[in-house]
Amino acid sequence: MDSVVDKENRYDLKIFLTHQPRQFLIDKAKKYNYNLYLAGHTHGGQIMFLFPFKNLSPTMLETKYVRGVFHFGKLTAIVTRGLGMSIAPVRYNSTPEITVITLLK
């Protein structure tokens, strides 16, 4: 991983694009001063059970970053629900989405 990230901060905007929201990848993006971390993979939980004070999904066994926007100091992470499905051809309480990100100087 260290051989492919920009360590010299040569750019005004650095985007870390990965398939899966993994903690060690988020830590690398923070370490090398990336501004934006983009991931998917989770399908927003794909199957989400809604309870009064907590939403639960089997995906939460894999990662706590199932969907949404997360902030880690100066790093913003966006995990999109996407459009597709994985093993089971069903989505429950996880509406598909196309994410539009507007970057402002």
Helical fraction:
under 10%
Shape: elongated
Tell me the structural class. mainly beta
Low-confidence stretches: none
Helices and strands, in order, run as: EHEEEEE
Major sheet strand order: 1-2-6-5
How many H/I helices? 1
Largest sheet: 4 strands, mixed
Features:
4-stranded mixed sheet; mainly beta; elongated; 9% helix; two-stranded antiparallel sheet; 105 residues; 6 strands
Helix and strand layout, with pairings?
Elements: E1 15-17, H1 23-31, E2 36-39, E3 49-50, E4 55-56, E5 68-72, E6 75-79
Parallel strand pairs: 1-2, 2-6
Antiparallel strand pairs: 3-4, 5-6
How would you characterize this protein structure?
The protein is mostly beta strands. It has one domain. It is built from one helix and six strands; from the N terminus they run βαβββββ. The chain has one helix at residues 23-31, and strands spanning 15-17, 36-39, 49-50, 55-56, 68-72, 75-79. The strands form two sheets. It has a four-stranded mixed sheet, covered by helices on one side. A two-stranded antiparallel sheet has the order 3-4. A hairpin with a 4-residue loop joins strand 3 (49-50) and strand 4 (55-56). The longest helix has 9 residues, at 23-31. The radius of gyration is 15 Å and the shape is elongated. The two termini are 29 Å apart. The mean pLDDT is 79.
